[in-house]
């Protein structure tokens, strides 16, 4: 029988884990793709399900002893179907990027054209950025947002008519506005394209009914489970029944091996949480908090990309304040606020030192912070950006934040 635990067997890793936990507790986590999972999700993740091989799908496994694994995976699928009103769900993708790759291989042939959003306008690397292998296999062409910061539907339609894509792809990582899936579906139908939405960032808001849901409208929808959905790090694919076979085959055996069932159990727990009435309240508060940040930054003369926010994130052009996104990220870090530098639409600067800072409210909202706290947070962010070269001032803000976060504890054991 095993008798050792992490603390007594591996004090080095144990200490690093504790230091990371302390960092999470003491800082303001504002990376919009991050969140804090519940202890129940952590428990499922750390369970003995990690020991089990279960290649295949429930009832059709390549290994024996899968009867309880089948229960877990079936529950995860049923809950996801209910959350998003989906016809078919695959919960095995290891993360968001593998989910997208599996869909491309399921529904496209090498050389096929995909119409997706430009990265600097909010798109994601996995949507065919030239640095990815997918860009070598498929032909990605890009649409953009218009001068008002909204998806330019007329331009999208013109490009669709010109390029005749096999697939039209929506869903973004740095775009802060609502998406008109019906309108895009209409354009896709006009040119005979498959519709794919990648809701990685906003899945939690959609599950709670706080944003438009593409699942009943689009052919395929991919997501991560660890962003606003507040589950474990992982991916998921939802699709119409007619694509179910291809999608399942592409995930396994096409692309992945044995599924991570501890992770799938944790997804199931997160979906159960997201089906609770409290989660609707949580999603509503995420949006309210982002709106307060929008208001506070506008008041202080900041330039918000896309004109503001309808979701959980804001993209701010900080160059008008005399610094780059990278300098902004470093200053915020020193002040105890974690955010990330980000390209703005048609950014004249480079990806490693872009013009923008991306901020989100999901993690702070999980900690119980509301409108009143958001006003204080906005003030600190503004102070850190305005005083980005003043080490003493940044350290001062950090100390205030350490005190502040004590009122919003995350986990019972520290
Ligand atoms: C985060 C994200 C992904 C990638 O997810 P990983 O889990 O990091 O692989 C894919 N698409 C979009 C739109 C994302 O925001």
Q: Could you characterize what this model shows?
A:
This protein is of the alpha/beta class and 414 residues long. It has helices at residues 6-9, 11-26, 39-45, 67-84, 96-107, 134-137, 153-163, 181-191, 203-207, 244-255, 261-275, 277-299, 325-334, 362-366, 371-386, 391-405; strands at residues 28-29, 56-57, 60-61, 88-90, 113-117, 139-143, 167-170, 194-198, 220-224, 235-239, 303-304, 313-317, 337-338, 340-342, 356-360. It has two domains: 42-274, 3-Layer(aba) Sandwich (Aspartate Aminotransferase, domain 2), CATH 3.40.640; 285-405, Alpha-Beta Complex (Aspartate Aminotransferase, domain 1). The chain contains 16 helices and 15 strands. Strands 4-10-9-8-7-5-6 form a seven-stranded mixed sheet, with helices on both faces. It is globular and about 60 Å long. The structure holds pyridoxal-5'-phosphate (PLP).
Give me some keywords for this one.
7-stranded mixed beta sheet; 16 helices; single chain; Aspartate Aminotransferase, domain 1; 414 residues; 15 strands; 4-stranded antiparallel beta sheet; globular; alpha/beta; 2 domains; Aspartate Aminotransferase, domain 2; binds pyridoxal-5'-phosphate; 44% helix
Q: What is the number of E strands?
A: 15
Unreliable residue stretches: none
CATH topology of the largest domain: Aspartate Aminotransferase, domain 2
The main pleated sheet reads as:
7 strands, mixed
- What is the averaged pLDDT score? 96
Strand content: 5-15%
Roughly how many Å apart are the termini?
28 Å
Ligands bound here? pyridoxal-5'-phosphate
Number of helices: 16
Structural class given helices, strands, pairing? alpha/beta
CATH fourth-tier homologous superfamily of the largest domain: Type I PLP-dependent aspartate aminotransferase-like (Major domain)
Number of domains: 2
The value of Rg in angstroms is 22 Å
What's the CATH first level of the largest domain? Alpha Beta
Question: If strands are numbered along the chain, what order do they take across the biggest sheet?
Answer: 4-10-9-8-7-5-6
The coarse overall form would be globular
Oligomer: single chain
Helix percentage: 40-55%
Overall CATH architecture of the largest domain: 3-Layer(aba) Sandwich
